[in-house]
Design a protein that fits this description.
326 residues; alpha+beta; D-amino Acid Aminotransferase, Chain A, domain 1; D-amino Acid Aminotransferase, Chain A, domain 2; 2 domains; 18 strands; aminotransferase; B_amino_transII; branched-chain-amino-acid transaminase activity
C-alpha cells in the first residue's frame, strides 16, 4: 500500500535542487486543504501517431488548449487524488498509488481515452515528487503532499468523438487536514432533490464532470453549517458522500459499506476494509438503507484528500430538504 517514491533527501540537499523561481515554502503549522504553489508540473502528451511522449517537467502551471477542445464541450476529462508522506526514516512514500492508476485506467477505457499505463502513472507521480520534494511537509507536522494527476482531451474537434490529442499531468500541493477540526467528528447533510450520478452512468469513475452537479448542493449545505453532503439513491439506499465513500460500524462491530455500480471505488476504502479483515472484523459490502444507516454508530468517510474521519449520526435536523433542494 505504501511504496517508496524517491531516495531520502536532506532538506539542504533538496533545497539545492529547486529552481531560482520556485515559490517560498509554506508555514507547515498552518496548512489546510488549499492550493499551495510548488516548483514544477509534470506533463505528458499523446497523439495517435506516436502515443505517449517522454514527458516534461515545467515551471509553467497553465495549460493552453484550443477553444473547441473535447474536454471543454464534451467533458472528456478524468482526475485522481493521492498523497505522499515524509516518513520517520527520511524516505518519501506514496500511499496506494496502484489503486489510483487502476482507477484512472478504468475511467479512460469508459470515456474512450488513451490508457495511462501503470508504469507511466508511477513515473509521472515520482517525477512530480522529486521535482517538488522540498514541499513535502516534514515528518511530525501531520501534513502531506497532495498529488493531482489528470487526463484530458484537447485539440480542434467540432463533433462528438475522440479528441486528436490528450495530455496527462500531475500537480503537487502540500496540504494539512481537509476539515478544520482534523479528526474531530463532523455533521453531514442528507441531500434530497439531487442525485450524485445516474444509474449505469459514470458514477463509478472519477470523471471531472461528476463533481460539477455537486457544487450547488455543497454550497447550500455549507450555508446550513454542514461541511459535507450524503447522497441517497432513488430507493433511499445510503449511497455516497459528496467527497467520499461511506462506511458504517454496527453495534456488534461489523463494518458495513454500500455497493452500487454508480459508486466511485475509493482507494482509501479498500485499504480500510482490508485492514478491518486483517484485524478479524466482519466486513459486509451490500446495499445499506438510510434508515439502517441512521441507527448505526458514527460512520467513516474515506478518500485521499482526508484522513479517515467519523461522521456523526444523521439526526432529523440533518435531513434538511430545503437546504438541499432550494
Amino acid at each position: 500500500m505504501l511504496r517508496r517514491a524517491s531516495r531520502p533527501l536532506s532538506r539542504a540537499a533538496s533545497r539545492r535542487r529547486l529552481y531560482a523561481t520556485a515559490p517560498p515554502l509554506p508555514e507547515w503549522e498552518t496548512l489546510g486543504f488549499n492550493a499551495t504553489p510548488t516548483a514544477r508540473m509534470i506533463r505528458y502528451n499523446w497523439s495517435a501517431e506516436r502515443g505517449w511522449d517522454a514527458g516534461e517537467s515545467s515551471p509553467e502551471f497553465t495549460v493552453t488548449i484550443h477553444g473547441l477542445s473535447n474536454v471543454l464541450h464534451y467533458g472528456q476529462g478524468l482526475f485522481e487524488g493521492l498523497k505522499a508522506f515524509h516518513c520517520k526514516d527520511g524516505l518519501v512514500r506514496v500511499f496506494n498509488s496502484h489503486a489510483n492508476a487502476a482507477r484512472l485506467q478504468s475511467g479512460a477505457e469508459r470515456l474512450a481515452m488513451p490508457v495511462v499505463p501503470p508504469e507511466l502513472f508511477d513515473e509521472a507521480v515520482d517525477r512530480c515528487i522529486r521535482d517538488n520534494v522540498e514541499y513535502v511537509p516534514p515528518y511530525g507536522y501531520g501534513g502531506a503532499m497532495y498529488l493531482r494527476p489528470f487526463l484530458f482531451g484537447h485539440g480542434e474537434k467540432l463533433g462528438l468523438g475522440a479528441a486528436p490529442h490528450y495530455s496527462f499531468c500531475v500537480i503537487a500541493s502540500p496540504v494539512g487536514a481537509y476539515y478544520k477540526g482534523g479528526l474531530e467528528p463532523i455533521d453531514a447533510l442528507v441531500v434530497e432533490g439531487f442525485d450524485r450520478a445516474a444509474p449505469r452512468g459514470v458514477g463509478n469513475i472519477k470523471a471531472a464532470g461528476n463533481y460539477a452537479p455537486d457544487v450547488l448542493p455543497s454550497i447550500l449545505a455549507k450555508e446550513k453549517g454542514y461541511p459535507v453532503c450524503l447522497y441517497l439513491d432513488a430507493a433511499t439506499q445510503t449511497y455516497e458522500f459528496s467527497t467520499s465513500n461511506f462506511i458504517g460500524v454496527t453495534a456488534e462491530g461489523t463494518v458495513v459499506t454500500p455497493t452500487s455500480p454508480s459508486i466511485l471505488p475509493s482507494c482509501t476504502k479498500g485499504v480500510v476494509l482490508e485492514t478491518a479483515r486483517r484485524l478479524g472484523m466482519r466486513v459486509e459490502e451490500r446495499p445499506v438503507s438510510f434508515d439502517e444507516a441512521s441507527t448505526r454508530s458514527p460512520r467513516s468517510t474515506t478518500r485521499s484528500r482526508r484522513r479517515v474521519v467519523a461522521e456523526r449520526p444523521h439526526d432529523p435536523p440533518c435531513r434538511d430538504a430545503e437546504a438541499a433542494a432550494a
